[in-house]
Model the fold of this input.
Amino acid sequence: MAAVFLVVNVIQKTSEQDGGPVITVPEDILTVSIEDGEDALLQGVTAQDGRDGDVTSSVLVESISNFYGDGKRLVTYAAFDSDGNVSKATRAIQYSDYTAPQFTLLHSLRYQTGEEIDLDELVQATDCLDGDVTSKVRVSTDSSLSTRTAGVYQVTFSVTNSAGATASLSTELEVYDPDYNDADVNLSTYLVYCQVGDDEPDYRSYVESVVAGSVRYTFSEGAASASGNDGTTLRRSALRVRGSADMDTAGVYQVYLTYRGDDYQGTTLLLVVVE
Done:
């Protein structure tokens, strides 16, 4: 923080020598919401000019830096006098409600051998500052990734917002060779974000439908069972869960949900990110 004060003091002295306004900035770090506008960023900032007097009304936010250090940014202020002289000063800010960009997966990271994989179409990303940042997502994988060969492959998704904050997600992608009639287990989401200390999610609650051959079971939100178009009933509790998330430890966890019927079976993958 001392470096910030030094910058402000130097700017003020230069302004006095040049006959421009002197900007006064509070020494404390300003805490604001990501929803706050320029008025909030100008809290406590004043400007005085040797000729014009109080020119606080001329102060504006010129720019905001990328994140630095422990989640802070620098706001640069500018003030003007009637002669057109410009003075600048800076102040550190931090957000009370900032969250890093988050990813959404549109498909399970499990693929049958021979199935087409388009990871660029698989992932989306949103950011609390920029909104939709899907176009900025970058995907990297093992160079050996191929759906011709069953196996487990590393994949990493990353995205950087306009403030220079980068979020990344590294996990595994599985290519499998089914030896049975494959059923589709479809989820409402394939990636869940939780906070350390949260209760463990009810993994079965994310199952939206199961398609086994010509039979489709569609679960209503919160429903314990679904009726198939052949008159049979499938209970959520019949779906098997393998894997879990350690809610006390940050990390990326894989949870598998499996349907097993007389003629069909299928498994999907849910990623749980504990932050």
About this structure: The helical segments are 2-18, 38-41, 119-122. The chain has three helices and 24 strands. The first strand starts at residue 22 and ends at 24.
